Amino acid sequence: MSRKLSQIDVVNSWRPPDPLKLVRKDSSFSYRWMRKNEVELRKQQGWEVVDKKEIGFEADQRVSRGSSSIAECNELVLCKRPREMSEAHRSFLDNKNKRIMEALGAQFHQEGRRSGCNTYGDVTIEQKNS
Q1: Which domain of life is it from (predicted)?
Q2: Does residue 17 fall inside a structural domain?
Q3: How many separate domains does the chain show?
Q4: Residue 57's closest CA among 36, 82, 35, 78?
Q5: Is residue 90 part of a domain?
Q6: Dihedral angle over CA of 66, 72, 73, 76, nearest 10
Q7: Residue 44 has what pLDDT?
């Protein structure tokens, strides 16, 4: 006899190991994997390269290939910066985005009035949560 398809349980709990997942990290820092060619630019924003011994990657062959002492995986380099600095940067960008959206809303209403249309409400951007 065969069981109905709705009665079959499928287990999807196995996942391949993620070489970019950080196991041992300091909670006072924000971490980010960055492309090697962007590291110098990001250093101007307060990011610094992480040593692989500091994060516990010295034995991980996927991350510690070669003789380099920095945590890198293929074309990515692990960087960190103080959490307060990251939060201040995020706040700065949020305020900048808010001002841009206000300007776009004003421009929308101005163009509407110029063309003889009535415009109402605010301009918003909807983001798809993934």
Answers
A1: Bacteria
A2: no
A3: 1
A4: 78
A5: yes
A6: -140
A7: 92
- Predicted pLDDT at 63: 61
Does the residue 24 lie in any domain?
no
- In angstroms, the CA 44 to CA 47 distance is 7
Q: What whole-number distance in Å separates Cα of residue 47 and Cα of residue 45?
A: 6
Pairing mode, strands 29-35 and 76-82: antiparallel
**Helix then strand then coil, % of the chain, to nearest 5:** 35, 15, 50
Q: SS3 for 77?
A: strand
Q: Rounded to an integer, what distance in angstroms lies between the CA atom of residue 50 and that of residue 31?
A: 9
124: which DSSP letter?
A: -
pTM: 0.64
* CB-CB contact of 67 with 52 (8 Å): no
- The low-confidence residues of the chain, meaning pLDDT below 70, are 1-11, 57-67, 130
Parent domain of 47: 29-114
Report the distance separating Cα 130 and Cα 2, nearest Å.
Answer: 37
Asked if residue 72 is part of any domain, the answer here is: yes
